Input
Amino acid sequence: MMATVAPSIAGSEVRREPDPASEPGLAALVTQLVDDSRELVSAEVALYKAKAGERLAAYKGAAIFFGIAGVLALAALIAMLVGLILSLATLIGPGLATLAVVGVTLVIAGVLAMIGKGRLAAPKPTPAKEGASA
Output
């Protein structure tokens, strides 16, 4: 608590002590601190919720477009495979053409799945440094 300074008539300063009755007590200050802290935390949580909502809305729109693009790409792949079957059907017959196209497509899918599985493998443990405790 700071003392107030008032000028005197002769130009010298007279210090006045603060009135203890007009100042809040320690309990009131602690209560005010707790209330202010709660309000601050609530405001911070609301801010982060608003930021997350904005990001989620932006990602939601992007995810919809990626989903539509994926469906169209799948439809194009199916159309290409059907066209390949129809083209081969004139040379080797419809049954054998279907078998050949499906077989090659499954082999490609299997190779891609094995590559993906290899990338998901657990990382190899690194050797522990000497002198390090577990």
Q: What stands out?
A: Residues 27-119 form one domain. The chain is about 70% helix and 5% strand. The chain has a mean pLDDT of 83. The two ends are 53 Å apart (CA to CA).
